[in-house]
Amino acid sequence: MTRERIGADEFVDVSTQPETRGIEVIGDAERHGRARDLFFVWAAPGVSILNFTIGATLILLGLEIWQAVAVILVAALLWVFPGIIAASGPASGTSGSVVTRAMYGIIGNKLFVAFVGWFIGAVFLALTWLASSFMGADLLRRVGLSDPVWVPIGVTIVVSAVTIAVAIFGHALILRIYPVMAVLLFVIFVGVSLFILPTVNWGYTAAHPLSGIALWSAITVGFTILASSPLSFINSPDLARYLPRSTKPSHIAAATALGGALPFVVFTIVGVLLATGLKSGAFSAGIDVALFDLLPGWMGPLLVIGVIVNTIALNAMTAYSSSMSLQAIGFKLKRIPAAIIVGVVGTALTIYLVLSSSLLEAANLLLQFLVVVSGPAMAIFVVDVIRRRNVYDGLDLFDDRRGGRFWYTGGWSIPGITALAIGGIATALCLSTDVWTGALSAAIGHIDLSVPVGMTVSALLYALLSRTRLGKEGRL
After folding, report:
1. d(CA 131, CA 354)
2. Residue 214 included in any domain
3. What predicted TM-score, i.e. pTM, was given to this entire model?
4. pLDDT tens across 202-237, in order?
5. Is 23 within a domain?
6. I want to staple 255 with a disulfide (CB 3.0 to 4.6 A). Which of 38, 349, 463, 473 is the partner?
7. Residues 6+ apart with CB under 8 A from 445
8. Eight-class DSSP state of 204
């Protein structure tokens, strides 16, 4: 195995041409950028109507305003995890879906990427396209286009086409347009927030204040929903991998974490405040409809534009990473055709959800179930970065021969696979949703400890097993 085999043909990372590079290792001579560029890459997807939706959910769960804000602030701390693993991108010069070969083995990683990478990618593509489909369709309904089936499907197809186009142009275009998108989104959503503030019931108290087990159940369920966002971004190395190898990991972590956390905190709190001024019937109609009713006529179209821009920002990033996941699985595809396949799959799932769900129902259910895989996977990745001191060699990661460094036991890393599986089971046992309550959660009054328990179990198992013969690497 030589470095020439894993490097790409000469490629210039510019925003005016599609990015043909996929998971190939980026040479030091081709590295560019600064850690602070990542702040806007993560801020643009974070200025989202989903934050309004999740914030409103905390009030629906029965929390007081101060309790909801406290849960949001604690959940925001989890953004440090995508920041920590992002540094593995520049260290290795390749995508996170290849770096995880160090955790799961050459063959085991294919299963991990196929399930975790695709599952998370497909859910987030569908969930955010769903938001723009509902709101775009509602706006068109107000001007006379009211077909309940074809209008949202049409909005979905148009938005998804633009999203995949951004993913095809790739890294350089993302770096160039995301700062503009972040500023535009911030202005629109601050404007929306200003119209929400007069409706806020600052003296709000829950109709039936919670205490004891019921209170802790609501707090922990809300925390799980909130935690699913930062824990799902296991793709953070993909956006950082072009940075020079000398870039400080602490700077990468700070830019990534702050870019994701700040809009997450601000606009989720706005969602909490929004919910205090709405009647219970407004929730059944949907947060998107409730927002339209609060805003003056001229502001409604601006909000839809904001939702669509945010959708493109989040899903272009997701589709970009998912296209490289297909390559990491082993499909003989260039990155651009892979991105198109991702778009087709995500569009189909979105159309299904458009015809069968409300935004609030889909968001809460999917976000809770995401942590079953995303929490343990994130914990394992963070432990691996720390124990290796962020040292990853691209040549070793691409050496897929029997006996290679990351071949482990028949191509499988027993520590990684075991920690992921048992951590996922522990998460499921502690999860509490409307359609599934784990045995441990039920035993303690529907308190949802899925995130801390699942991540702790996975982290400890992986750290301990990696120190045994089961974690022995080849050619050391």
Report:
1. 9
2. yes
3. 0.90
4. 989 988 899 999 999 999 999 998 998 899 899 999
5. no
6. 38
7. 213, 214, 216, 217
8. -
